[in-house]
Amino acid sequence: ARELTRVVSPRFVSPHGESRKHQIVELISESDSRMLEAAGRKGEISARQIRLGFCMKRGACTYGGVESIAHCGGGDTGTPCMDVLYDKEQERKISQYAEDLESRLLTTPANSPRHKALQAEKRSTENYREVIRKQER
């Protein structure tokens, strides 16, 4: 919950633009932090911290976000999830993850289901990094 109050800061960006970010976080303010912490302890908050930043989807997400970022970053569909907010401070970790994925792709049989899943993960890291680079220009 403490981390969730930070999503309103410039540290977090939506791959769909600033207006989408404001739609997602319009109800969160700095004064909400105590309420968010209490709601988090009760399990009432649907926002989840994920590898790329935060999943702001209300309710359960069928795609994961913790074990796989393929859907969150659009690696499986070409378009990032509408409910994801990217954390700019994760860029180094995402770059390291992309390197790890690249080495795993080299040792995984081509056209296998695992190879396709790793490719989707890699595309998500590329999509993430492109959004972050655009924000820094």
Plain-language structure description:
The protein has 4 helices and 4 strands; from the N terminus they run βααβββαα. It has a 4-stranded antiparallel beta sheet with strand order 1-4-3-2, covered by helices on one side. It is α+β, with helices and mostly antiparallel strands and 137 residues long. α3 (91-107) runs antiparallel to α4 (113-136).
Helix content range: 40-55%
Q: Report low-confidence residues grouped into runs of 5 or more.
A: none
Strand line-up of the largest beta sheet: 1-4-3-2
pLDDT averaged over residues = 85
Largest sheet: 4 strands, antiparallel
Provide the succession of SSEs: EHHEEEHH
Assembly annotation = single chain
Number of helices: 4
Q: What is the overall silhouette? A: globular
Distance between the termini: 30 Å
- % residues in beta strands: 5-15%
Helix/strand structural class: alpha+beta
Q: What's the β-strand tally? A: 4
**Rg:** 16 Å
Structural descriptors:
137 residues, alpha+beta, four-stranded antiparallel β-sheet, 4 strands, 9% strand, globular
Indicate the topology:
Elements: E1 12-13, H1 18-25, H2 33-42, E2 48-50, E3 53-55, E4 84-87, H3 91-107, H4 113-136
Antiparallel strand pairs: 1-4, 2-3, 3-4
